[in-house]
Amino acid sequence: MEEGTGSTGPSKASANTADGVPASTEVLVIGAGPGGYVAAIRAAQLGLEVTLVEKDAYGGTCLNDGCIPSKALIHGADVAHEATTAEHLGISAEISIDVDRLTDWKDSVVDQLTGGVESLCRAAGVTLVDGHAAFVDDHRARISTDDGEATLSFEYAIVATGSRPIEIPGFEPDGEYLLDSSDALELSTRPDELVVIGAGYIGMELSTAFAKLGTDVTAVEMFDDVLPMYDDDISRVVREQAVEYGVEFRFGERAADWEPADDGVLVTTEDEDGATAQLAADAALVVAGREPATDTANLEALGIELDEDGFVPTDAQGRTVRDHVFAIGDIAGEPMLAHKASYEGEIAAAAIAGQPAALDHEVMPAAVFTDPEVATAGLTRDEAADAGYDPVVGRMPLQANGRALTVEATDGFVRVVADAATERVLGAQIVAPNASELIGEIALALEVSADLSTLAGTVHTHPTLSEAIMEAAADARDEAIHTR
């Protein structure tokens, strides 16, 4: 095989010095997160020879340091909070919280799932390599493992290197005074006071969880409300509930500086007028968002350049400018969601196998696991109008939902957006307990181009939160029974 980008296929004669690395493979997958491992399994199911290279842990950030462990922590915090705040129901309890044991349980959940990922890959016939992969040219990658280095030739490649936390200059996490989200999920003791820098989805999930565990939380946010990517009425519900749990907010301020102080930190914030304030805490949790990890696989060797937002440009099947190289997941653009990465992985695998497949990001649900949860799919009213529709909107407040009353969760709503002319459902926004589960009905409605009459006319179990979807659809048709 030639050395340059004019090479046409994998070589069968690569000399390897690292054990477990094959000389060649049909499909090289770099990264075993929710995009990479799904792509590898699907490609193997489709009869392709697949090698999956992962430098850290199978399951990626989502399974090891994000989605799963954070939801486990949130569950533990919910149990603790409910046990101590039910006196009005005639239930009183005194509890103790062993954060170390909670962390051990969380780790056991993660271990079970990561082991499952490895088992699924092996059962599908995927070759697993623990190491770091970087491209050498069009059809070769250098694999670095604990045993040494090897050259792996490939016919196709799927890059799924994920994302990492954005670092604020001067606030680089050190695991002691300054924490990132991974550090926060590994704490063995509960901090008495915590400054959270950022009130986006990660900041709000963890702020609420720690507040429920008894930590005094102060959240610092440059914007004027929490979850700045959502409509004001959604942000308001989440913020007001967080305040009830004891979270204090400082909006319109940025973290300007910090210093160690009294076995903790002293964080200096600054507003737009230059006024400063100092916040003392045991530690500061820095959650300013995430950025694509596009610099780990040496994409430059393939001539792949990033777009103006720092993502890898791809087509409707995940192909990059090099037809045999695909990019999926967080490096391929917003939204940075695990289920989006998995979906893109299946599409890329199908495309490599020669099957018809294409991405459709219009039906991509998203959820924030705050209290209450937030979930969305499709278009908002404004987005529908910008797209040329004449939108009609139906809304069902949870105050009128029987199930919401029985679980004491009436601060929320379901909003359904449809096209006035055809009544085709265009999207929905849900603020409610288990919104992440409820949004599946909307995603299906969007996928099959259902109209309002289908949602409103489908009998929903009573009493359930899902009835609010039915009522919101009926409200959009001026036919709601339980709201006006």
TrEMBL record:
Gene Ontology molecular function terms on file: dihydrolipoyl dehydrogenase (NADH) activity
Cofactor note: Binds 1 FAD per subunit.
EC number: 1.8.1.4
Chain ranges of the Pyridine nucleotide-disulphide oxidoreductase dimerisation domain: 364-473
Chain ranges of the FAD/NAD(P)-binding domain: 26-345
Cofactor(s) in the UniProt record: FAD
UniProt xrefs under SUPFAM superfamilies: FAD/NAD(P)-binding domain, FAD/NAD-linked reductases, dimerisation (C-terminal) domain
Cell membrane as UniProt keyword: no
Swiss-Prot/TrEMBL keywords: Disulfide bond, FAD, Flavoprotein, NAD, Oxidoreductase, Redox-active center
InterPro entries given in the database record: Class-I_Pyr_Nuc-Dis_Oxidored, FAD/NAD-bd_sf, FAD/NAD-binding_dom, FAD/NAD-linked_Rdtase_dimer_sf, Lipoamide_DH, Pyr_nuc-diS_OxRdtase, Pyr_nucl-diS_OxRdtase_dimer, Pyr_OxRdtase_I_AS
Catalytic activity line of the entry: N(6)-[(R)-dihydrolipoyl]-L-lysyl-[protein] + NAD(+) = N(6)-[(R)-lipoyl]-L-lysyl-[protein] + NADH + H(+)
UniProt keyword Flavoprotein, yes or no: yes
Pfam families for this protein: Pyr_redox_2, Pyr_redox_dim
Miscellaneous note of the record: The active site is a redox-active disulfide bond.
Family: Belongs to the class-I pyridine nucleotide-disulfide oxidoreductase family.
Protein name: Dihydrolipoyl dehydrogenase
Organism (species): Halorientalis brevis
